[in-house]
Amino acid sequence: MTQWKIKKFDELSLHQLYDALKLRIDVFVVEQRCYYPDLDSEQNQLDRHKETLHLLGYQGDTLVAYLRILPSGQSYDNYISIGRVATAKQARGTGLGHELMSEGLKVCQQHFAKQNIKVSAQEHLKEFYQQHNFEQVSEMYLEDDIPHVAMVNKR
Predict the structure, then answer these.
(1) Whether the predicted pLDDT of 125 surpasses 70
(2) Strand, coil or helix: 79
(3) Would you list the domain boundaries of the chain?
């Protein structure tokens, strides 16, 4: 059973922040060998923006799923954005990724009702996002040397 927590940056405990950053680094930097600074710069404070939401999925004391939701104007002018979607390696293949995305979409509806959502999806995950009503709206482009496509969920 996964326990879901939604937090703004200032509401994250030190342990929750550590767990989230560790999972993001484990997945995006170590597993995908994508060496980039995951923490936002002073000019681009996406994690710490007052309206950014962090969705954390715990099983027991272990963070197994995470995503962040950015308000319109942070990543895209006319869309809220879901990003940093990650599931722990040991929890994959269980449907947890779909549960995470479903929870994320519910949070979007609760906090940003009637606003369209845009993601920069890794191209190999296009079908995953299509199962959650996202449509591809761009050609493939490279982001950190990984093929991506822009996808929109119109509600």
Answers:
(1) yes
(2) strand
(3) 3-153
Q: What is the DSSP letter of 76?
A: B
Q: 31 is written with which tokens?
A: 């597993």
pTM, two decimals, is 0.91
3-class DSSP state for residue 113? coil
Rounded Cα distance, 64 and 112, in Å: 25
Supply angle C-alpha 42, 46, 51, rounded to 5: 125
- Beta strands 62-70 and 53-59 are antiparallel
Least Cα distance to 117 among 66, 154, 75 occurs for 154
Fold of 3-153: Aminopeptidase (3.40.630)
Q: Rounded to whole angstroms, how far apart are CA atoms 139 and 155? A: 22
Contacts with 9 (C-beta within 8 Å, 6 or more apart), sequence order:
47, 48, 49, 50, 52, 54
